[in-house]
Amino acid sequence: MSKTLVVVVPDADILAATVASRLVAKIVDAQAERGTASIVLTGGRIAAKVLRTVKDLPAAKAIDWSRVDLWWGDERFLPAGDPDRNETQAREALLDALPLDPARVHPMPASDGLDGDDAEAAAARYATEVRMPFDLLMLGVGEDGHVASLFPEHPVLSETGTTAAVHNSPKPPPTRITLTMPTIQEADEVWLIAAGPDKTDAVGAALNGDKSKPAAHATGQSRTYWLLDEAAAAKRY
Ligand SMILES: O=C(O)[C@H](O)[C@@H](O)[C@H](O)[C@H](O)COP(=O)(O)O
């Protein structure tokens, strides 16, 4: 039976440090168990802060980075190397500094890739690449309660394939690729990460059972962790 735990820490810096430590431990444990770890990264500011923190953690040297598979929960459908791509931000924050196996790094397609600007084809291509289960899937939480590129009241919420193209995203850019909610729910652990007063209402609503918030549906098979700072957690009752 899946369990949900809420961890609240004082502020965004301490949250990034907490998540970074947990992430390193999670990868070390997964590798101790199976030799590999399969991790889904998220975009957004707090995620970048977490990755920058991992870079400076001595314990990260305990990880065999050549045996880590990295995936993305969603991507802004922009040309390769665009500074707004979640992939570019993750590479700059951490990945470029790691001895990763390039064959195990699985960014979502770019809009100048093999499928050009056909987001549906690009999403379908990623679906053929994805290998589940994921040990861990991390999600930032938007001000409106979105996770990955699954926005409230958006038709993408009813998609049941592995991935989906998103058009008319309320958060720019308008075209994105995302894992669907059923795919997110296949992960062994899901971590929802949010900091700051802009997230108070969305986090409060989702944790208090408002099912109109996509974040309320993001659960892992074994564990779901909400990793929050005090500001984001302020309306959780
Ligand atoms: O495009 C993105 O940025 C992500 O797809 C999005 O899901 C993000 O993780 C949240 O919006 C939280 O982002 P912040 O941490 O920057 O608020």
From TrEMBL:
Pathway: Carbohydrate degradation; pentose phosphate pathway; D-ribulose 5-phosphate from D-glucose 6-phosphate (oxidative stage): step 2/3
Residues in Glucosamine/galactosamine-6-phosphate isomerase domain copies: 10-226
Hydrolase listed as a keyword: yes
Alphabetized InterPro entries for the sequence: 6-phosphogluconolactonase_DevB (IPR005900), 6PGL (IPR039104), Glc/Gal-6P_isomerase (IPR006148), NagB/RpiA_transferase-like (IPR037171)
Keywords assigned by UniProt, alphabetized: Hydrolase
The keyword Transmembrane helix belongs to this UniProt entry's keyword annotation: no
Catalytic activity: 6-phospho-D-glucono-1,5-lactone + H2O = 6-phospho-D-gluconate + H(+)
Signal peptide extent: none
GO MF annotation terms: 6-phosphogluconolactonase activity
E.C. designation(s): 3.1.1.31
Family per record: Belongs to the glucosamine/galactosamine-6-phosphate isomerase family. 6-phosphogluconolactonase subfamily.
UniProt cross-references to NCBIfam families, sorted A to Z: pgl
Job description of the protein: Hydrolysis of 6-phosphogluconolactone to 6-phosphogluconate.
Protein name (record): 6-phosphogluconolactonase
Lineage: Bacteria, Bacillati, Actinomycetota, Actinomycetes, Micromonosporales
Gene that this sequence comes from: pgl
